[in-house]
Amino acid sequence: MDLRSVLTTWILLLAASSSVADNLAGPLVDQPLADQRLVDQLQLHGFASQGALKTSANRFYGDSPNTSFDFTEIGLNASWRLNPRLRLAGQVLYRRAGEMSDDEPKVDFALADIILTTGDSYRVGTRIGRIKNRLGLYNETRDVPFTHPGIFLPQVVYFDKVRNLILSADGIYVYTDLYQPFGLFSASLATGLPVIDKNVETAYLFGDLPGDLGPDENSWLASLWYYSQDERLKLGWSGAAVSLEFDPQQGSPLPIGPGTVDILYWIASAQYNTERWSFTTEYMAEPMQWRGFGPMRPDRDATAEGYYAQVTHRPLPKWQLMLRYEEGFGDRADRDGRKLEQQTFGLIPAKATSSRILTLGLRWDLNQQWMLKAEYQRHIGNFILSEIENPDFGSFEKHWDLFAIQAAFRF
Amino acid sequence: MRIKDCSNTLHGVRRARCRSLAPWTARTATQFPRIQWPQVSALILALCFSLSALSLAQAQQIIVNDDVAISDIDRNRARLIFTMRINQWSDQLPVAVFVLPDEAPLHQAFAKSALGVFPYQLRQTWDRQVFSGTGQAPLQVANEAEMVQRVRQTPGAIGYVGQPLSLPGIKVVEVK
Lengths: 411, 176
Prior knowledge:
The complex is a heterodimer of chains A (411) and B (176). Chain A is globular. Chain A is built from five helices and 17 strands. Chain A has helices spanning 3-25, 33-41, 163-167, 198-204, 338-343, and strands at residues 42-55, 71-83, 86-97, 106-118, 122-132, 168-180, 183-194, 211-215, 219-227, 233-248, 260-273, 277-291, 300-316, 319-329, 354-365, 370-381, 399-410. Chain A has a 16-stranded antiparallel beta barrel with strand order 1-2-3-4-5-6-7-9-10-11-12-13-14-15-16-17. Chain A has one domain (48-410): Beta Barrel (Porin). A six-stranded mixed β-sheet of chain B has the order 2-6-1-5-3-4. Chain B folds into two domains: 2-56, no CATH class; 59-175, D-Maltodextrin-Binding Protein, domain 2. The relative contact order of chain B is 0.18. At the A-B interface, α2, β1, β2, β3 and β4 of A face α4, α6, β4 and α7 of B.
């Protein structure tokens, strides 16, 4: 479908549902209570955002060296609570992110949430369908600008270039929440098929090879969270195990075997909140194994790593300042990337496997519906950049800056 | 400013006395001062502050629909209900949560003093649930009058008001 018509349709849809939501939310004095009940149980929400970004070099979210507007996120969701035990929810997401997305509306999640048993101090439930993976503090709502302080999530932990690998899974999710006097505990276990796209293939195979990379078997995901009663302190561990299999194209000139990539991806998270300040830190490690790709891609083990510390300050109720420092490495045994550079005869330069990023951000919530953000980033290294957007690794600029602004609306 | 006002209002009083910040000590029967604007405005300001402090300190009341079988609630449970984690009452009746807009002073005071969380934390929790499909947001009403009306009409409803009230169909619930 033509990009412009998709956009127009979506904006119209969004406007229509916004007015529906307004009607639903308005006072309903004379309406029969039964209708009111249905209206209360069916919720519609949505958001739309448009960003602009400029980089001093390297492509990120489109043609950023020449200012890119290729950064749009539109989501529309519905949640219908049929009864206290059963809820249906779904969200459609349209996302434009340079060449890192394929410009088509996608089902972001579509699930049935069933509470199996519940009491005053616990809840056990299951979700079936397409489920957003609960990884780290932000993965579940990573495309919703209102749910995180900066424009971009810390890329060394939440890679946008391979977001699909860990974004969601089609499968089943079991969760339990315990409400104790000293805090809330929640644990979850899930299994399902990940959604793989060209970005994942290019990133994990270092290039777009002739053939297809798909899930080898179901992914497994687990998470464990503790929140203090007042939710000032949040601690969590979450992880995913993903297996990918490469199906080489028949008769391809390149001798690439039907290899596998096994990935474990886990995040340890901590956040402390006060009225004016929030302190957040997360550590991500990603052990990977490549096997059976043949002589051109010898078997290899590596553990990617990323971590950040982030301070958010709210000097006034509607204003937020953010300072973040992050570091990420393609292989923690080869942080400066020299070993890989030698092994690949310079094909993958050392600077392509690490990133150090300093970010300054400003967020202004005009009201409950509208928000503006501005962000500046100073980068050393190119680890977080997409191989699809920057196919020529040799032309990476190691030191680069990024400036971005974003406007967002929600209802 | 003060010195200028003083000299305007207190004829014949030396500036030094004026600066002593106790101009009324210079009053005589014949020199009754006109309205002293700096003092008056200071008084009004002080009054406003103490009034607003009073209104902040005033206990926000949790209200529930008459069919909810509780007479008090502890803060942890109230927090679980307002963060949409508990969605049915002990007798299986579905909970319907009503809140005022984020910017409403009563909402902010309620979040902080009754629930012990900051309003931005509530918003974060609701947003995470709504946009990940894992839960719902409370129903938002425009003002206190609508809050009262909706809580009265909706079975299993819970909400809050800024003033104690006594109305048929609504129970005020004490937060323990």
